[in-house]
Amino acid sequence: MRITPTLETARLRLRAWRVDDFERYFELFSNPEAARFIGGAGGRGAVWRRFLQMPGAWALQGFGMFAVEEKTSGLWIGQCGPWQPDGWPGLEVGYAFHPDAQGKGYALEACVAAIDYAFDMLGCDRVIHNIDPDNRASQAVAAKLGARILQRIDHQPPFDEYCVDVWGQSRDEWQQQRLRFSSVPISNSPVSG
Length: 193
Known about the structure:
Layout: E1 5-8, E2 12-15, H1 22-29, H2 44-51, H3 53-61, E3 66-70, E4 76-83, E5 92-97, H4 106-120, E6 126-131, H5 136-144, E7 148-154, E8 163-170, H6 171-178, E9 187-190
Antiparallel strand pairs: 1-2, 1-9, 2-3, 3-4, 4-5, 6-8, 7-8
């Protein structure tokens, strides 16, 4: 099992998952409006099973979305990072944030760290973001990151009644975009996960 690293930005800590992250995770994934574009809201049991998804990805694949913590408060505020479920069209840097953390630029800041990690540590050649065509907020984040729509696809079952736009960019494109984010310092340090 790969050790989950910790990535730090000015305001955020992207780290391994903890059981005590669940209550705020549940607040996000049980909220119909907040979970609308990320698989929909669920009850406590369904959300618990979903919560185990990312620690499981880290254990079995050696990567997954990080738990995102606000450094000043220590609160879990979201998830962000690389993941690639079976049948996915590429390595996705996904993101979802608690309602009280939205609109503060946290998604952009966390994505910069996660994209750096995907290219520098995982050695991928391209990252993608699968975004519902109606999710304007997520589209804005992807556009600020320099991604563009590569294709529209039918989503993977059990969500295959939906289509998503696959946004993305290559390693070379990111290296050019990354200069715009030089104020987002990233540090990596291994911790047990």
